[in-house]
């Protein structure tokens, strides 16, 4: 079980940083989650810009139920140009 007073972490990794798939596929990026003492897990997601506007990129750690929730949205290509 995750240690008391710690919460999971997340980060994005480019296809060029990872060492599992070769050659790297620039169409994808990776969303990594880490929580000691567990191993880090990664999800392969499209390499599209993430919408970091208000309430569009949210992470939440529910310590009581041991749930880490990340909600994210990709930018709409039509609004990205504006």
Explain this structure to me?
It is flat and about 40 Å long. Strands 1-2-3 form a three-stranded antiparallel sheet, with no helix packed on it. A three-stranded antiparallel sheet has the order 4-6-5, with no helix packed on it. The chain starts with 8 loop residues before the first strand and ends with a helix. It contains one helix and six strands, in the order ββββββα. It is 5% helix and 43% strand. A hairpin with a 4-residue loop joins β5 (57-62) and β6. The chain is mainly beta. The mean pLDDT is 91.
- Look at the structure and give the mean pLDDT: 91
- Category by helix and strand content: mainly beta
Strand arrangement across the biggest beta sheet: 1-2-3
Radius of gyration: 15 Å
The backbone outline, from C-alpha atoms, is flat
Flag low-confidence runs: none
Helical stretch tally: 1
In N-to-C order, the SSE pattern is EEEEEEH
Distance between the termini: 45 Å
Give helix % range. Answer: under 10%
How can the largest sheet be summarized?
A: 3 strands, antiparallel
Number of strands: 6
Approximate strand percentage: 35-45%
Write the layout of secondary structure elements.
Layout: E1 9-14, E2 28-34, E3 41-46, E4 50-51, E5 57-62, E6 67-74, H1 77-80
Antiparallel strand pairs: 1-2, 2-3, 4-6, 5-6
Short descriptors:
82 residues; 6 strands; 3-stranded antiparallel sheet; mainly beta
Short description:
The protein is mainly beta and 82 residues long. The chain has one helix spanning 77-80, and strands at 9-14, 28-34, 41-46, 50-51, 57-62, 67-74.
């Amino acid at each position: 079980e995750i240690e008391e007073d710690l919460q999971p972490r997340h980060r994005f990794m480019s296809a060029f940083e990872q060492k599992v798939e070769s050659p790297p596929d620039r169409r994808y990026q990776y969303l990594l989650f880490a929580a000691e003492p567990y191993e880090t897990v990664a999800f392969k997601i499209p390499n599209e810009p993430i919408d970091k506007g208000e309430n569009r990129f949210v992470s939440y750690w529910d310590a009581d139920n041991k749930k880490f929730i990340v909600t994210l949205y990709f930018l709409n290509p039509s609004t990205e140009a504006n």
